[in-house]
């Protein structure tokens, strides 16, 4: 099913006379049905004041709730739809059980094209909403997103970005209010030493000064850490990174890779942890850090590339290691970590194809003596964005985040959550290093797909490949679109 084909609109005719006559009553009804007045909008920390001074925001790629968390019987999941359950994603399962399960959380975007905008701006532009359904139906358009338009970066051309929302992005908000921030791979474009659309220029006269004296790391050769590469595929090397937005210039890590599925998320985690450690030593941690961990997107069944399970396991451990590093640092007392997928990419979920995993991690997450804390209140990407803004004392960017209730219940604990220890089982058992075989029909299909950027591959074809890889001959479920709205969602758990 083509994702935009599931979206529906409506047109209503109302008489002006009835609107005027019933305005107050109708307004009250709308407020009640959207829980505007019932929603708690202020944090109630156990210590009486907001201790959060730092936010780490992790954006991943394209998984639904049931694909990952459908096997957690403590919450609203469907085990029959699980593709990457606890054996493959032990860290995400442990994080959800420890810090809270959000089983009614929805990605605001349908695809990466608008999903990365929703995830960083709490809104999209008119241009984005008009062109993404066209671009995704058959490749008629270039990937005009994440600071790119017509295969170029408007910032570098000195022109405006037609795709940019009028109210800006999170980093616009941060810069306007003179806050410190740092980006790792989001709206930052990497040029690679190896060939491809974003390849580095050829070396000039003095090749010793060119960053790409070596194009990639072969299996067994030294990684940036000095350890031999355990990966059975070549690892591409970064030539340079460039910000695609003005406010991100000089606010990004030049050694952190953007979207490239051949580049393990472990190396992204290594680089983030390296910088984080340096910030801790100099007591200079930025107030806001945005980290991109994209490899749960997978390369399908493309021969010689990580299997889908390997890619998701790699992504899972990278997230676990990031949380482990933060929670064992001196910043655990004043840092909150937010995790979501940019979109759910029409994947299998028994509630809605937008429902996805969300994690809110801090020392102040609630602790339950009998089972995990389950938050079934209706939340979306926009609620998460507003929650981060509110914790940092930033104003909303637009009406969307202004009216989105903040996720107060995720900070209702006493500040007693201990540090997290990452689960390395899928590194130790070798799952992370498994590659797809050649010769299968799925490998041939995957070879025809474009994995050069997020969602370049046809999602309909890729979803079928991933389902068959995980579930064998089980019937592929039809996508579902029946979001549980705020007024009908299960009650929140309160002490």
General description of the model:
The chain is α/β, with parallel strands linked by helices and 495 residues long. 29% of the residues lie in helices and 10% in strands. The protein is built from 14 helices and 13 strands. The strands form five sheets. The protein has a five-stranded mixed beta sheet, with helices on both faces. It has a two-stranded parallel ribbon with strand order 2-12. Helix 3 (90-99) packs across helix 9 and helix 8 packs parallel to helix 9. It is globular.
Which key phrases capture this entry?
alpha/beta; 495 residues; 5-stranded mixed sheet; two-stranded parallel ribbon; Alkaline Phosphatase, subunit A; 29% helix; globular; 14 helices
Give, in spatial order, the strands making up the sheet with the most strands.
4-9-1-10-11
According to DSSP, the number of beta strands is 13
What would CATH call the class? Alpha Beta
Poorly predicted runs are 490-495
The description of the largest β-sheet is:
5 strands, mixed
**Looking at this structure, what is the CATH superfamily?**
Alkaline Phosphatase, subunit A
The CATH architecture designation is: 3-Layer(aba) Sandwich
Overall pLDDT: 91
Strand content: 5-15%
Short description:
The protein is α/β, with parallel strands linked by helices and 495 residues long. The protein has a single domain, classed as Alkaline Phosphatase, subunit A (3-Layer(aba) Sandwich), CATH 3.40.720. The protein is 29% helix and 10% strand.
Helices and strands, with pairings:
Blueprint: H1 16-33, E1 54-60, H2 65-69, H3 90-99, E2 101-102, E3 105-106, H4 112-121, H5 126-138, H6 154-157, H7 170-176, E4 181-184, E5 188-192, E6 216-217, E7 235-236, E8 238-243, H8 265-282, E9 288-292, H9 308-327, E10 335-341, E11 358-362, E12 374-375, E13 379-380, H10 381-391, H11 399-403, H12 425-428, H13 441-447, H14 459-471
Parallel strand pairs: 1-9, 1-10, 2-12, 3-13, 4-9
Antiparallel strand pairs: 5-8, 6-7, 10-11
